[in-house]
Amino acid sequence: MLIKFIEFIGAVIEKPLLGLGRIILLLGATLKGTVRPPFEFRNLVNQMLQIGVNSLPVVLVTAVFTGMVLALQSYTGFKRFGAEGLVGSVVALSMTRELGPVLTALIVTGRAGAAMAAELGTMRVTEQIDALETLATNPVKFLVVPRFLSGMIMLPALTAVTDIIGILGGYFVTVILLGSSSKTYLRATWDYLEIQDIYSGLLKACFFGAAFALISCYKGFYTSGGAEGVGRATTGAVVFSSMTILISDYFLSAWLFK
Amino acid sequence: MIELKDLYKSFNHNSVLRGVNLKVEKGESVVVIGGSGSGKSVLLKHIIGLLKPDKGTVIVDSSDLSQLDEEGLNEIRKKFGMLFQSSALFDSMMVWENVGFGLKRHTHMPDQEIKEIAVEKLKMVGLVGVEDEMPSQLSGGMRKRVGLARAIAMKPEILLYDEPTTGLDPIMADAINDLIIKMREELDVTSVTITHDMKSAYKIADTIAMLYNGVIISTGSSEEIQNSADPVVRQFIEGRAEGPIIVEGINR
Predict the structure, then answer these.
(1) Does the first or last residue of chain B, that is N or C, have fewer Cβ atoms within 10 Å of its Cβ?
(2) Distance CA A92, CA A197 (A)
(3) Is the ipTM of this structure higher than 0.85?
(4) What is the DSSP letter of B109?
(5) In angstroms, rounded to a whole number, what is the distance separating the alpha carbons of residues A185 and A168?
């Protein structure tokens, strides 16, 4: 009975533990590859374009509408007790501390994370990763490191754009559509926004960028089972990355804003 | 030159190799035959260090692969060229970039020179004017030949062929066989081929080794294998469903 129970526990935790072990090893190999030459500059620039520049349109749309709806909701709410003058601070603080990094990370995961897992997964099942190794090329260094670094660099950059565009979206709704004073909005934005709000948000974005890239690469790198496997890896990458972003967001926030 | 000693490998409690011994002399062409799922690809991947054995050793030019660190292994790998069953071309790169990949990574040649060498290697495998195409624009036979051009681009001493004729029409398959022979004659390489195409095996092999149940059960020249009295070898080379080799799911 006891043996059976232990066997059951073992069977349940075997796969997650194997995954955890692999992801830690992949992180170690990635960090090692980051500091050791030769550096894959061309691949890095390529990935920065893929993750950063190509994600820009969808990030812009998300940012502007998030800022707009945030302003609209807080304006109607705050009006009930005559605090509509504070809409600017609500938008600025929400965007920089929370919505900027998290929404950008989720959007980029859906776009670039899925693409990473699908691309690496296809390379795995069509033996292209094996081919890299036979050509004396370390696949982690060649494929994972540039994606990991671009995630870490480009997500804070995109978040900065989201923050600014979100605040402008809020301005548009509050001042132009709802007729509030421009001066009040801008003062509320500047007076209550501290530098720590901005950099802690960017720091979170940096962590989210590293996390989604590592998870997506891991899912792609260990794909097996043909086209179906690639599909599974892609879905897994998006779900696992999104969960990691949302859960770690709480703990990072608790730590950064304590 | 290449020696596999008492090689064991299993995946999820499924033993694939159960004590494989195989020796390949310099300049020799060895063909390993065996049914689907017999572990031929696994064996080939051990020779170039893509897989590590559970037990046993792989020796290439007197280096034990399991004793090498990543750099050492990569140095050994530069002696190899490998043609994959699915060609495994990098589909984000043009044909010439695929062929010149090793040169780009491991030499300081300018791109122009690499492209010239790539074009020359493509010509060797009978392809002209495809260097600026993407792999997805090529037919299966052409992709195989680009894969071969990539494998020979770094002037390897050893060529590994993973089912080189699988999935090709008989004429293209024979053209690939001719290319394998040509590579050996012109480049003086040692080669290990795995296949279940007996026509191909007879044509390109100095030595044929049969892998069955995780071990090499028979080794000999093409003639010796053709005249083998071993019932397992006979069944395989004659391609009969009846015999000692059990085909799962087939009732007899």
Answers:
(1) C
(2) 9
(3) yes
(4) -
(5) 10
pLDDT in tens, A161-186: 999 999 999 999 988 888 888 888 88
What tens digit of pLDDT does each residue of A207-258 get? 999 999 999 999 999 998 889 999 999 999 999 999 999 999 999 999 887 7
pLDDT value at residue A118? 95
Which residues does A contribute to its contact with B (CB < 8 Å)?
123, 126-128, 130-131, 133-138
Tally Cβ neighbours within 10 Å of residue B104.
18
pLDDT at A134 exceeding the cut of 80: yes
Distance CA B129, CA A227 (A): 32
Best to test chain A binding among B65, B82, B103 (most A CBs inside 10 Å): B82
Q: Which residues of A touch B101 (CB under 8 A)?
A: 135, 137
Taking contacts as CB-CB distances below 8 angstroms, the residues of chain B near A135 are 77, 101-102, 105, 150, 154
Token pair for B95: 């044909």
Distance from CA of A130 to the nearest CA of B (A): 7
Check if the beta carbon of residue A257 is closer than 8 Å to that of residue A156: no
- Closest C-alpha among B100, B187, B196, B209 to residue B146: B100
> Residue A112: what pLDDT?
93
b/e map of B141-175 (b: 16 or more CB within 10 Å)? bbbbbbbbbbbbbbebbbbbbbbbbbebeeebbeb
Q: Which residues of A149-187 are buried (b: 16+ CB within 10 A; e: fewer)?
A: bbbbbbbbbbbbbbbebbbebbbebbbeebebeeebbee
pLDDT at B204 over 60: yes
Q: Are A23 and A217 in contact (CB under 8 A)?
A: no
Q: pLDDT (tens digit, 9 = 90+) per residue, B9-59?
A: 998 888 889 999 999 999 899 999 988 878 889 999 999 999 999 999 999
Percent of chain B with pLDDT over 90: 39
